[in-house]
Amino acid sequence: MQRVREFLDRYYPRLVELLERCGMPRSKPPLLVLGVLAATASVVITAVLWVSHRVDADSGPVAIEPAAAGRSGTAVVNAERAQVLSMTMVTRNRWAAGWSDCTSGPNCRYAAVLDRDGARATSPEWPVPYATLASGDEAIAVAPPREGTLTGDTTMMFRMTYDGPVLTRLRYRLSTSTFGPGEILTDQVVPGRIVVVNPKESSVRMLDTRGSRSPVCDTTGRCWVLSGIGRTDILWTDDGGKTWQSQALDSHNQLGKLAVSPDGQTVVTTSVIVGDTGQAVAKMRISHDRGATWTLVQHPPQSLNTPPLAFDDGTAMMLGGRPNDRPRLYRVRDGAADLDRGYPGDLADLAGDEHLMYGFEVPKRRTTEVVLSTDEGATWTKFAPR
Predict the structure, then answer these.
(1) In sequence order, what E strands does 68-123 have?
(2) Of the four listed, 141, 276, 278, 319, which is most buried by Cβ atoms within 10 Å?
(3) Where are the alpha helices (DSSP H) in 59-94?
(4) What percent of the chain has pLDDT over 70?
């Protein structure tokens, strides 16, 4: 009691004087004065706690145990009718594979398998196909939103670390027209749009740009995209989207494909025409000076199954052939496309560079194995990515 009196004698006159300056008469009872102070302190403390909670909630990714996100995808990968839908290889021992199982009819199930230096993990089951992406020196898998937009449903990122698999919920950010180092441009998450995935901060957002497909970034920092409705244009930026340059490639055909060599010097583009027999190559061009000048490729395959590959040595390789025929490997050299020496089998896809080429193999009716080559297609190795 003595301490309370000492406190009041010491601080109460100062508090009354402060409140009098704020408009409260000195005649107000002491308990009312203390009540006002207590209420004010309570509001301030509540506001501080709320703001700190919001900052903490937004300061880091939300890590989720894979088992808590849904059923394990092991049953999908090992199902009798399972097949590979996507594949991204950074090295022979670091890759991500997307799998599907449509045994139950139209309600397919999807999962992804990641390998990091021999340690493998399978993602949770997901209702839409996983997108597999390269993130620096590792491969990751992104589970796109079920609705196909970044407005409501959840998007997940599955990656392997030295401590094991990590599943993270990606936060949605407002769309931007720029992007920074370490961020990934992809058209595999939202149909018909390019999005920016930031693995470091576990976020994803739309990219506001004229480009709508085939984003590629080379080792110099330049990023390329294709654009156009009823036509094909190529766009590129050297400053993370702050400024763009563009060039028209085909004023009549779109749905083109784009390939850029790692050093950015060799660029290959194709425009596609849709006819009675399906999609066919309308024009194929190659540039050896970062798109400053272009050469029309002679004798390209009539159809392409996947985008071509551009190499630092100025050549390119592609998987194509006549419509409805078994695809073959073609090499573009000296302005013309010719059949290449290597033939790994029935390929449904081709990706990589001159140091590591890979693609799905279709031995029967299902894609269950991947083939890879480290000598520009002279020899091939086969394995099942599960």
Answers:
(1) 83-91, 94-101, 109-116, 119-122
(2) 141
(3) 74-77
(4) 74
d(CA 303, CA 253) in angstroms, rounded, equals 14
Side chain identity at residue 14, one-letter code: R
Amino acid 307 reads: P
Q: How far apart are CA 258 and CA 20, in angstroms?
A: 74
Could you tell me which residues come within 8 angstroms of residue 283 by beta carbon, excluding any fewer than 6 positions away?
Answer: 249, 250, 253, 270, 271, 296
For 144-182, write each residue's pLDDT tens digit.
988 777 776 788 999 998 889 999 999 999 999 999 999
Of how many residues is the chain composed? 386
Q: Which amino acid is at 88?
A: T
Here the tokens at position 345 are 């089998």
Crossing angle between the packed helical segments 2-21 and 30-58, to the nearest 10 degrees: 80
Provide the pairing of β-strand 62-64 with 164-169.
Answer: antiparallel
Distance of CA 343 to the CA centre of its chain: 30
Average pLDDT, the chain: 80
Token pair 């079920």 is at which residue? 146
Would you say the C-alpha torsion 304, 310, 314, 319 has a positive or negative sign? negative
Asked if 173 and 195 count as a contact pair (C-beta separation under 8 A), the reply is: no
Q: Quick one: tokens of 254? A: 């779109």
Supply the pTM of this predicted model: 0.78
